[in-house]
Each structure stands twice: as structure tokens, then as C-alpha cells.
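Researcher: Go.
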Amino acid sequence: MGAAYSAVQWSQFGTAVATASAALAGFLFIAVSINLRQILDAPNLPGRAALTLILFGTPLVSSLLLIVPGQTRLALGLELVVAGLVAGTFQLIIDLRAGSTAKATAMQRMLGRIFPIIASTSCLLVAGVTLLAQAGGGLYWLVPAALVAIIFGLLNVWVLLVEILR
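Model: Structure:
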């Protein structure tokens, strides 16, 4: 079985992503605590903070699932599918409830909020499905899932920490 379908070969990746995601979630809490009043005064920013927490939490959870010792390929594949479905569903619900500002265009909302949700959770789902099928890329799909979540999470933290004060 190749590296794409063997979780044992992904333990260092899982450990690194779990560590980075947990640290970034802590950074998010710092940003929110520094600008809590401004975030609560803006109608869509509490939702953006929640989306960011899930963006950082998704690679954290998927990485922790990846590094469970002795776990079967079947169990991991199913867990990744469920994690992707749950994370994507919660993010879309939060986004719909948060609404949008009058300043944001439909394209800005699509690129800044909808794209990261769809891209990161879709890659996570594909990782689970292709791991189960042992064809189509398997665990390599965790790389773009984590990268998209972390990059867009960092952009959101920047907004909540710096841009909110402009």
C-alpha cells in the first residue's frame, strides 16, 4: 500500500498540522479578546470569528484522527468523511446566519467566506472517500484541506485583529 493510503506514514504531517492549528486557534482567541467590543458591535464579525475557529479546528481534528495509533484505514476514512460533513455543515450554517455587510460584494463573500468552506471541507471529504476506495489520492488530499483552512483562517484573524480598527 502506498503512502497515500497508509496513515502510519503521515504521523509527522498529522503532528505538525495539529500543533500549528492549535497554536493558530490560540492566536484567534487573542485577536478576539483584544477587539471583543468591535467584533460584537459588527453584525457579521462574531460569525466570522466562529468560522475561523472551525477553519482552524478542522485540520486540528483531522490531524488528531490521522495520528491515532493502530487505527484501520476504514475507520480513518469514515472519520474524515464525517469530519468534513460536520465541519462544512456548521460553517455554512454560521455563514448564512452571519449575513454580509453592505460594503462586501457577492464576489468578496464568495472568495473570502464560501470558497474556504467548500475547498477545505471538500478536500477533507475526498481524502476520506479516496482513502476508503484506495484510489484517487487518499491522504494527499489532507494537504490542500489543511492549507486552505490555515491560509484563510489567518486572513480572517488579520481582519479581526488589524483591519477591524481601520
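Model: Helices lie at 11-34, 36-41, 45-66, 73-98, 106-133, 142-161.
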